[in-house]
Amino acid sequence: MFRELTPPECFGELAEKPDAVLIDCRAPAEWHFTGTPDLSSIGKKALLLAIADESGRPNPEFVATVTSIAGPDTPLYLLCRVGGRSANACQLLGQAGFTDLVNVTEGFEGRVDENGHRNTTEGWKFHGLPWHQG
């Protein structure tokens, strides 16, 4: 079981909870080409940990890596492009015994608009939350 929050709600909770961790579970090419959340203003850094590679092959080290940096009750916030992979990540982590899980709905870029563009109606970037490129 996990909660779902919008990007602004997520950023607010990350700022309020010293032990909270944001995990960006997109693939490395996405981090490089579309940017990553910048949490420096709240004294944090997002954990970039792909749940799968660019071809969709699952990362067999995903749960083990999270386990190495977080305890079962650490507040974990999962972010992907639109919220699907991060929901899957929440399910995997829940099965592994993590209890404080949040799926960031809308993701980093959000769904496409009527013109096929992202970042225009929803998502981390759309809401003007801090991010950086590269």
Detail the topology: elements first, then pairings.
Layout: E1 3-5, H1 7-16, E2 21-24, H2 28-34, E3 36-37, E4 47-48, H3 62-69, E5 76-79, H4 84-95, E6 101-104, E7 131-132
Parallel strand pairs: 1-6, 2-4, 2-5, 5-6
Antiparallel strand pairs: 3-7
Characterization of the model:
- The chain is α/β, with parallel strands linked by helices and 134 residues long.
- The chain has a single domain (3-128), classed as Oxidized Rhodanese, domain 1, CATH 3.40.250.
- The protein is built from four helices and seven strands.
- A five-stranded parallel β-sheet has the order 1-6-5-2-4. The protein has a two-stranded antiparallel ribbon with strand order 3-7.
- Strand 5 (76-79), helix 4 and strand 6 (101-104) form a beta-alpha-beta unit.
User: Rounded to an integer, what's the Rg over CA atoms?
Assistant: 14 Å
Low-confidence stretches: none
CATH architecture designation: 3-Layer(aba) Sandwich
Q: How are the strands of the biggest sheet laid out side by side?
A: 1-6-5-2-4
**Biggest beta sheet summary:** 5 strands, parallel
